[in-house]
Every structure is written in C-alpha cells, then in structure tokens.
Amino acid sequence: MITVESNPPLARDYHKILNKNISKIGSTCAPQIENQWQECVELPLIDLRGLTSNDEGERAKCAEEIVRASSEWGFFQVVNHGFSPKLLSQMRREQINLFNASFAKKSTFGLLNNSYRWGSPNATSTQHFSWSEAFHIPLTKISDQACYGEFASLREVLVEYAAAMQKLAKLLAEVLITNLGQKTEEFEEMVCCDESTCFLRLNRYPACPLSQEMFGLVPHTDSDFLTILHQDQVGGLQLMKDSKWVAVNPNKDALIVNIGDLFQAWSNDLYKSVEHKVMANTKMERFSVAYFLCPSYDSLIRSCKEPSLYRNFTFGEYRNKVQEDAKLIGHKVGLPRFRF
C-alpha cells in the first residue's frame, strides 16, 4: 500500500474506503475513466460588454449568445465580466494562504463559519471519493470579522469579490429569465436569491500521487440556478458533451458560467444542467472559487411552461433529497427524482 502524507489526510480516508471494498468484493473500485486522454474544447466565449452597449442590436446579440450556450452547452465563459485582474489575483493569493494552514487549524478553529469540508464523508466506494478540500461560505458570514481569526486580510477581499459575483450572477439570470418571457421582478418575488441564500466555495485540489484517474470532484450537476467559476491555469475541469467527457481549456481572462438544476427545471429543459467533474493532477495542486446562485429553502421551483416535465418542489425539499441520496447511495441523483 502506498502511504502518502497530505493536508488534509485524503490518502488515509481513500485507503479506508478502498480496503473496505476489497474485503467486500475482492477487487478494487477505482474511478472508471474511459481513457486518460480527453478531447480539449473551448467553451463558447461571450463578451459581456454587449449587454451594456448603447446599440440595441448588440445587446440582443449578446443575450442570444448567452441563451444559446445555456441551451446547447450548459456551460460558457465570459470576458469583460466586471472583475479587475487585481481583485482576482488578490483572491487567489489569500485563498492559497488560507489553504496552506495546518489541517488542524482549518478543521477545528471555526474558520469562516465552520465551513471547512474535505474528501467525501458519505462515500461508499472510491468512485464517490473527491480528492479535494473547500470552504463553503454563506454570503451572510463573509463580512463577519469573527470568522477570520488570523486571516483578517481575507475579509476585505472576499467582501468585494462576493459583491462582484452577485452583480454578475443577477445580470446573467436576468437575461435567462427574460428569454423565458418572464419579468425579473416577478421571478425575484417567487424565488429570493440574495446574500442570505447564496454561497461562495473556495476550492483546493491537492496534487494526488496515487493515481492519474483520481476524481478531484466526482461527476455531478449543481443544485442551484447558476454557478460562476474562477479557476487557475492547471486545468482538470471536464464536462459531458454529446455523451462523452471533454476537458475544458483554461482561459486566464475568463470566468466560467454553468447552468444549475433549478434553471433546467424552471426552463422546462430549455437550459441544460450538465454533468461535470474535476480530475486531480498527480503533480500540481489546483485552485478555484465558485459562486452559487441559490434561492431560499421555501422557494417553490416550477417549470415556466406547460406541460411541465417536473413536479413542483421547494428548494429545501430538493436539497434534502440530494443529501438523503448522498447518505444512502454515496452520490447525488438530483432532477430525475422530480421528473414526471
């Protein structure tokens, strides 16, 4: 057995799951990867300056590009997104400093509202194990000085970063809602997506010397309306396109946007919440920050067109079912649970 010391102790838990499965079925249950080489793709690239143009035609063209990418890919990337290079570099520097802390400090010192997570506590096999760690932070806690301890310099950056993410997410959501024939005000009355419901997730994917086929984050769809991701240049993000996994080429100037389960249900499958994953790197660690546009737990999610493909459900009901499935079978099922 290979012994690897890591912060956090991912190898320890991985080997526990591996040995448990070997004793049960007499063979390993390593992640099943079709092949190590993956086709690399460039996601649709959208210049958001078009949305603020004085030219009505330019605004319409940009909105059409967002809608088309959301329908055909479920993923796209945006430039001229409102984030300064200085803010993005400050965020990355503070993020690295935070994750460089000892495992004991991250897991027991109450940092960032006790939001630290690592590995996959509910994993029942190595196929459900994620080689990663994260802080999953409610936006309401970002301004709370008591959450930071010795990482006080992170607070100012996170406050500015979260505000910029909210602004961008609402801009994109407005485009998608308007295309469905709804008014933004009506949408916001039905579902409340503000700092009391949305999250930032700071991710680190440590180098994994155990295998080239290790999941940094297991295949999944996002349980929100939309996600905005800022990743580094290491790569590892893959998504399902035309029934096969494709690798996404990093673009240092762009943010990645993907549709979540709630927008797929709300649009009656016009917009696609696409399965995606992160593959760990054997030699290099990877960092990313994700923003999740989520509603209140009592918000009713219903398709905007009839006949509806999904039964009505609250976001709280959806989250509870996702968590229940994770405990029972080790992974998320998601929207198929609510499909007629």
From TrEMBL:
It catalyses: gibberellin A1 + 2-oxoglutarate + O2 = gibberellin A8 + succinate + CO2. One of its GO terms (molecular function) is metal ion binding. It comes from the Eukaryota. It holds the Pfam family DIOX_N. Coiled coil: none annotated. SUPFAM superfamilies: Clavaminate synthase-like. The keyword Magnesium does not apply. This is gibberellin 2beta-dioxygenase.
